[in-house]
Structure formats: structure tokens, C-alpha cells
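**User:** Once you have settled down, spend some time on the protein underneath, comparing sequence with C-alpha cells, and judge whether sequence predicts the C-alpha cells.
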Amino acid sequence: MSTEELKQAVVAMMLRKDEVENQNKSLRAMYDQECEISTGLRMEIEEMKRDALRRQDVDRGRIQALTRENELLKHQLKKYVSAVQMLRNEGANAEGLGIHLDEPQPQVPPPKQNIDYSYEASQYERKLIQVAEMHGELMEFNEMLHRDLNRKDALLRALKQELVDLRGPLPGTNHTSQPLDDNISLASSDSNNRPLINIWIPSAFLKGISSSDSHHVYQIYVRIRDEEWNVYRRYAQFYNMHSKLKKKHPILNSFEFPPKKALRNKENRFVEDRRKKLQHYLRRLINYIVPLNQELAGSACREKLLAYIPFFGDPPQPDKKRKMSAKRKSIQNMLSSNQDEEEPDVPHYQGL
């Protein structure tokens, strides 16, 4: 993959992120609007329920009062009718009592008709059922919106994690978790268009003849603009660099650095896990170191990077004029010839 294709992939990823965020905002606005409507309907339903209960209490009180009044009137009417019948039977004694039978007697009022409220009750019940159905539909719509928002949030988090996996941890952010997939990653870039310093650790291979002096060497591929080179370091060199830098920058103690392990440190799974952690550590280190150095932040190049962190440069060559004993030279020649014969050619990562 070329640099232009990688840039296009990053730009497409950012555009897709903006689209997802816009969709998320619109869905949230719709969700808030529906929540307001649902809250208003709930308040109306509660108000209608309270009004219905209040009316029922008032009607119940009226019915009880009318029932008592009706019973009282019935009792008085019975007394009056019995008195009139008694006076009619006695006849003559009626006039002595001051009661005149010829006078018109008050008519008994007809019983009041019972008002039928069944139609109003059925209408009210039907409206309550409609409101309940609307409330259920709103609840289902809210649940659908929640699921959609959760799905969009999960997609957004996945896209962000994919972007972090693609470019490495971003400057100014504190990523506690390291990416699991590191096929293609950029170590650092910021909003000021700072030159990219790309770092990969694509491979690790075992070096040494016997099991006692064998160790793994990690290939580090560094690219700054058009400059690219490979360096090979073993874990002890990573550890020494980390120990020196954290004395100068105590904040590096918070960076995740793979610890030492004396036993079973040559297993493939352990080496692969250590390779990913070392790669993640180098990227976070670059993200922290570059903004502190004005020269690197302005125009990064290999010489400036090596001047600040010699770890990324070639190891110093020994003095050719240094005298060595014949025995030591013969041993080294024998070891080098054995390594050339026994070690297979290791493919080196030459960039994208």
C-alpha cells in the first residue's frame, strides 16, 4: 500500500466518521423530541386519570346524598298518606282537627329518572385505550431508537478503534488499551500537519547458536517522509533505553512497557505479545517526545531523531585499529561462518 493510498484510506475513514456522527446527532435529536412527546402524553394521561377519579368521587357523593334524600321523602310520604287515609275514615272528626278534605292535596312528585352515563363512559374508555396504544407505540419506538443509537455508538467506537489501529495512538490522548491488529499503523500525527514518524515492529527472529546464548531480535522499521531504515534491537536494549528515558521523563513510568521474563521467554505467543507491546510503547514514546522538541515538531528527519534518541540509529562500529588476539579472531570467524551456514535468510520489512 502506497502513502497516497494510505492517506486516502485515512481521509475516507474520517469522512465516514463525520457521517456517522451526523447520523448519531440526528437520531439523538429525534429521540429527544419523541421523549418530550412521550412525557407530555404521560402527563396528560395522569391528569385525565386524576380528573376521572375526582369526577367519580363527586358523582358517588351526589348519588349517596340523593339516595338519603329519597329515602327520607319516601318515609315522609308514607306518613302523610297514612294520615290522610285515617282522616278520610274518621270523616267528621277531620274538620275538628282543622283539616279540610275538599282542599287539593299536594301531588306526590314522580321519581326522578336515572341518567344513563354508559355512552360517556364508553367514549372515555375508548379514548383511554387509544392513549394507551399510542403510549405503547411510543415506548416501542423509543426502544428501537435506543437500539439504533447503541448500534451507532458501537459502530463509532469500532471505527475509532480501527483508526487507532491504523495510525497508532493519537497525540494528546491516553490510550490505556493497546490495539490488537497492527498490520498497518501510523505512529503519530496531529492537527498541525506535523511530519509523520512511522514506526513498525513487523517481525522478530531468534538469533544465536546454542539455547543458552540465543535471544530474539526485533526488527524496527522507521519512516520519516521519504527516509526509511531498519534497525534491529533485542529486548535488553529496549529496556536500557526505557530506563534512561524515564529518568529524564518520569511520565514514561505510566506507559505500558513489557516486563522482563526469565522463563519460557522464547515461546511464539509470548514473543508476539511482546512485539505488539514494544511497538505500542515506541509509538506512544514518539507521540510524547516529538512535541517537546521544536526541531522534531517543525521538520522531522533522521538526523534530528537520532540526535535526540540514538536508539533508532545503527550501533557504533568498533575501532578497526583495535588489536584482537588471534584466538578471539578465530572464534569470531568460526561463529560468523556457522551463523551464515545455519541461519536461514530472514525477510526484512522494507516498507509499504
Residues 174-193, 319-324, 339-352 have pLDDT under 50 and may be disordered. The first helix runs from residue 3 to 90.
